[in-house]
Amino acid sequence: MRIVFPFILLFAFAQAVFHGQHHVSGKSMTSQEEDNNSSDDDTPREYVVLLAQDEQQSPCIESVLRHINMTTAHDNVRHVYNNSAFRGFSINANQAHFHTLNNLSAVSVMEKSVQVATTVYLRPNATWGLERISQGFTASGNSSGLHASYLYDDINVGQGVDIYVVDTGVYAENTAFGGRVTSGFTAFGVTGDTSGHGTHVAGITASNPYGVASKANIIAIKALDEMTGSIAPVIAGIDAVINLHDTKKANDTLLGSVIQLSLGTTYGTQFVPLIRALNSAVKAGIHVVVAAGNDGQDACQVSPASAGGINGSIITVGSISSTNMISNFSNVGDCVDLYSPGEDILSTWITGPQSNHYLDGTSMATPYVSGIVAYQIARNISLAQDPSAMKAWLRDRALTGMLNGTKSRTSSPLLANNGVSISSADDMARKAFAKSVAS
Q1: Which residues are catalytic?
Q2: pLDDT, tens only, 205-221
Q3: To the nearest 5 percent, what fractions of the chain are helix, strand and coil?
Q4: Which listed CATH number (2.40.128, 3.30.70, 3.30.43, 3.30.420) goes with 17-24+31-113?
């Protein structure tokens, strides 16, 4: 079941009425003018005023306002619109001001502000991880099973975006993927997933009900056969991703691409070719999201996590628990951009078409952020092929003051958030949660 409800009401004023153009001398009254004339209530109401564009000399906002003895600095002038395409202002106007402005030839249109709303969708029967990245606090109080809810404000939820899961492969037969899994590369002559790691990761980023971008394309890049392996096939997988991305771009069928990479070198090992390959993918317009690692130490000491933070546009993700504690196993430090759920994570599995499984790790935290990236690519085309802007957007929308502990080695670790605004009641609950964490 999907529940749709309106959110963020702007310009909440009574009796919003539209009217037509009105600058012919001796014209008949519009319904809005009649409303103003017939009412004894002279309370100022907010109007939006746009100035005429076909005047021989463009009207000046200040000269228009002088007709009612105001300037742009007046408290009743709420907003000023002044750009190359249109000019005007919003104003709290009583009846006299309304009639004066409404009858000026310099005014093209003047209408009372109306209510507008965005739409937020609620998916029940979701995991605690989806709840945390969309609401920021524990609403359900239950971290097991599908007892939470997921909020999002774009019904497309990543549709058309390509998420390249560079991992152990993906068990495409799991019904939670809805037939959206294709094979993009295998280093082993076979596809599929015998270890489960890649399938679990893919489920978190893009399955339904476990995933963030639950309509995105899942492209399996089988660069590992088991949980460990050589780094050379991983770079071959990245090479394949760039070629697939470039082909779609050349064919004008590209919406956006995300590399989801939940793997890394052993602690203390830096591998420059891997980082260079991923940075090349970023330069090609591919978003890259990598795991911080599970050593419980400095993420800057492993590859490719060390490429995150201030070191570039790659996004490095650490793990938190359901109590918003930074996980004991999670790598931390300046190379970590964001934290997201990584303990007791329920997702897709390989033992049957409807199988699921719990796993822990920064490997599980990373695909939540990959999913948010895919979700935003479908929602905001300006971010689609700009990894640097996407990273800035993620950090800007992330929540501060929500995470427990001092393990992060940063003054204000960021909790990943999908950017959906929540109700005032939920916002109060979120702030109360943050206050309890700080106390």
Answers
A1: 167, 197, 363
A2: 999 999 999 999 999 99
A3: 30, 25, 45
A4: 3.30.70
